DUF6286 domain-containing protein (Pseudonocardia kunmingensis), 179 residues
Amino acid sequence: MRVLLRVLAPLLGLAVAGTGVLLVLEVVAAWVRPDTTRGLVVPWPDWYSSLGATTWTDTPVAGVAIGLAVLGLLLVLVGLLARRADIAVDGPAPEITVTTSPRVLARLVGRRVRSTDDVAAASVTASARKVRVAAQAWNDAGPELRDSVRGRVDELLDELPLHRRPRVAVSVQDREGPR
């Protein structure tokens, strides 16, 4: 959702800025040419007369209102769901709030997992709920490597003052290397 919000924010900003520039152009054109009956870019008098003939009970008015309400609700939902996914950490005092990012937790876990010789490579993704480790082992390490990696991750999570302990998922793949 944050990606969608990062795309929508500049687009909406450009739309508002473009509308503002268009309004300034129309106002300046109306001041410079007060005798003209048409807008510079937008046909304001035609729009005004057609909107003057439209009543609140006409079908297009209700459709446009419903469409704008749905669009507004979608934008509000995108904004609410795009919150930052921080991980709560127990602070030194109850009145102090401490958080860390999932990226920092993933880096800590990745360093711990890669610190041994039996792991060739590892990729880690972390959130407040789950830590996923995909490790690559040298030359058919077997299920004992999965238990070893899970143990290292569990030790690290025990050392960290996390407010809520995330679940751990470990997958191990073989990697051919020197024998």
In short: The chain has two domains: 2-81, 98-175.
